[in-house]
Amino acid sequence: MRTVEGMGALIIVLIILAIIFGVFGFVVKGLIWLAIIGIVLLIASVIWGIVRRGASRV
Fold it and tell me: What is the tens place of the pLDDT at every residue in 6-58?
């Protein structure tokens, strides 16, 4: 049960980092690549969370 809570915390941290990178990348136009990294991290975190949550139910 403890690892499930740890995974949830990790996913939340990754989502927060992705949002921060995304916003910062869009604010600073020269760092548009940072926004792309943020978006990719956000999508990967959401997909990973869905997969892990589905695996823990089985």
Answer: 777 887 888 888 888 878 877 877 777 777 888 888 888 888 888 887 766 65
Q: pTM of the prediction?
A: 0.53
Distance (Å, rounded) from C-alpha 31 to C-alpha 6? 31
State the virtual CA torsion across 53, 46, 14, 25 in degrees, nearest 10: 180
- How far apart, in whole angstroms, are the C-alpha atoms of residue 42 and residue 38? 6
Q: How many CB atoms lie within 10 A of CB 58?
A: 4
Domains in the chain: boundaries: 2-57
| Cα distance between residue 7 and residue 30, in whole Å | 33
Token readout for 46 is: 């959401």
Residue 8 CA to its chain's centroid (Å): 11
